[in-house]
Design brief:
Layout: E1 2-7, H1 11-17, E2 24-30, E3 39-44, E4 50-56, E5 61-65, H2 67-74, E6 80-86, H3 104-110, E7 113-120, E8 123-128, H4 131-139, H5 141-155
C-alpha cells in the first residue's frame, strides 16, 4: 500500500478525495461528538431492545455506511476520522484492532479494501492499493501544492 500525507482545509476537501466508484464505507472508531460532554439519545440493540432517553458521552463505534452516509458524517466536521473504502460489505467477523499488525493491510486487501483515509485535524493520510488513484490526487490542481509542500518539508 502506498501513502500520501498532506494538509487539508476542510471536510469538504475530504469528500473531493473519496473514490465515488466505491460505495462501501467503513469508519473505524467513529466518535460522533468530539467534545467530552453528555448528550441525549435513544439506542436500539440488534436484539430489538430499545433504550430511550439515555445520557451518553465518549461514544465510539465502527460504522458501515455508503457514500451518502459518509457525506453526512463529513458534514459533522469531525476532525479525526479513519475512513476505509471497500469494494464489498465488511464481514461481521472483521475487526481491524484484532488483526496482526504485520499482516493487517494484506488481510484488509483480501477483504476488499481499496483506499483508506486517516484524518487527523489538518492532515490527511491517504493509502491505496491502486497507484493510479494516488497519482490522480497528486495531479489534481487543488491538492498538488499541499502535497508538494509536504514532500519538501520532509526532505529538509
Amino acid at each position: 500500500m502506498k501513502e500520501l500525507t498532506f494538509e487539508i482545509n476542510s471536510n469538504k476537501e475530504i469528500w473531493e478525495l473519496i473514490d465515488k466508484e466505491l460505495n462501501t464505507i467503513f469508519i473505524h472508531k467513529f466518535v460522533p461528538n468530539e467534545v467530552i460532554e453528555w448528550w441525549k439519545t435513544d439506542l436500539k440493540t440488534q436484539s430489538g431492545t430499545e433504550l430511550k432517553n439515555l445520557s451518553v458521552r465518549q461514544m465510539e463505534m465502527d460504522v458501515q455506511t455508503d457514500l451518502n452516509g459518509l457525506k453526512k458524517i463529513l458534514e459533522l466536521n469531525t476532525r479525526q476520522l479513519r475512513i476505509y473504502q471497500f469494494d464489498k460489505p465488511i464481514s461481521d467477523t472483521l475487526e481491524i484492532d484484532r488483526l496482526p499488525e504485520k499482516n493487517r493491510n494484506l488481510i484488509l486487501k483480501q477483504n476488499g479494501l481499496k483506499h483508506l483515509f486517516f484524518v487527523n485535524f489538518e492532515f490527511i493520510t491517504i493509502g491505496s492499493f491502486e497507484s493510479d488513484f494516488l497519482s490522480g490526487i497528486e495531479l489534481n490542481p487543488k491538492f498538488e501544492k499541499p502535497i508538494t509542500e509536504r514532500k519538501q518539508k520532509l526532505a529538509e
